[in-house]
Amino acid sequence: MAYSGGVKKSLFARWQANFWAGLVIVLPGFISLAVLRWLFLTFANITDTLLFFLPARLTHHDQGVGPMYWYWSAAALLLAVFLIGIVGLLARNYFGRKIIEWVDSALMRIPLLNKIYSATKQVNEAFSSSNKSAFRTVALVEFPHPGTYSIGFITSEQQQEVQDKTGLKVVCVFVPATPNPTSGFLLMVPEEKVIKLEMSVADGIKYVISLGAIMPGYTPALNPSAWGLRGAASGSPGHD
User: Fold this and answer.
1) pTM score, two decimals?
2) pLDDT tens digit string along 34-59?
3) Backbone region of residue 80 per phi and psi (left: phi > 0; alpha: psi in -120 to 50; beta: other values)
4) Among 52, 149, 189, 231, which residue has the fewest nearby CB atoms (within 10 Å)?
5) Does residue 139 carry a pLDDT above 90?
6) 141 found inside a domain
7) Degrees (nearest 5) of the Cα angle 195, 186, 216?
């Protein structure tokens, strides 16, 4: 009986090990599909309104009780992508730009909506690839207290008023929250206390979103003088 119990325990232990090994393999795919489904349904709630010219019983519900037909939502999403492309095409010519400027001006005159629109537009321009001054360099700063480092992105190095009143040459560093990099802290850090990293901005964002699990590749510099400069930048003495 003792032997039989040992065999059962061994089988259960092996099944448990197999279960956790399988979970590690299946979980990323499951989460990816769940996020993709959530994004699709979220965008569908917005883009479905583009099918206003079709009867609701075809595009959404059968007399209010039937299931939503996903293929109509997919068609609405494709229509939205097409219309956004048309807007981008219009923005490339003179008359299209004038129309966009007129719509922009009209939205800025609507109370309350203008606050939301203006803030959203500024955030969009800050993250836009055409904005060369935003998120230029990945850096390390001592935050939230000395001796603890956080990943940040240098957004600006021209802070004339702050430099005049503090007597220090400071740079703006945005330290994003994890895993949501759209929120975080804006720090003004003395330039000598900022350690610039060699990883790209895209790799830096992946590093933040993955909670540090996705580490970009790094090849140490072979030039000994580079280590001395790095040590000076971090406040530690360089090697002889």
Assistant:
1) 0.46
2) 888 887 777 777 777 777 776 666 65
3) alpha
4) 52
5) yes
6) yes
7) 45
